[in-house]
Amino acid sequence: MTTKDKPLLIKRYASRRLYNTETSDYVTLEDISGFIRDGREVQIVDLKSGDDLTRQYLLQIIAEHESRGESVLPVDVLNDLVRSYMGGNASVVPQFLEASFEMLRSGQSRMLENMGAMNPIAKMPGLEAMQKQQAAFVKAMTGGIGGLPTNWSTTPQMDTPEDDVDDAPGEDLDAIKKQLAELQAKLSKLK
Length: 191
Description:
The protein is α+β, with helices and mostly antiparallel strands. It is 49% helix and 8% strand. The chain has helices at residues 29-37, 54-67, 75-86, 93-117, 127-142, 173-190; strands spanning 8-12, 18-20, 25-27, 42-46.
């Protein structure tokens, strides 16, 4: 089992500081959020008691993002979640949410694979650079939902001058839109 397959172990000390056991340094909730966005599973445990605190911290990360205006969960869904906690009967909400997100991840993955397989211009020069731009755009539009493949190319990767382009995750959305418009113009000329 590789390091990427097993959860990243984060230990919480009595001072409430969070310690990354792989890199031997302290991390913040924002760091943990970044690990998850990058597709990494995390496990947070209390050093003294050994209690698993992962759920508590993941909920705290979600609450912080929601409070900053990065709303993903509609109010109706939040109300339904509260109702599922308050109801006396066993709720089907957790199983429904888990199945829904698995279906979403699977559908997105298949869509990206099919887009690469059906690409009639797979031999076009510079395609690798355009695919990187498309992947960055999809990641930006989906908010970095975990489980998405980052490289869905069906062609062998070659080093090109375009590979020297900075692929920073915070790339400006306007630049991506401009690049997509240019790509669409090129594609329409090929028809």
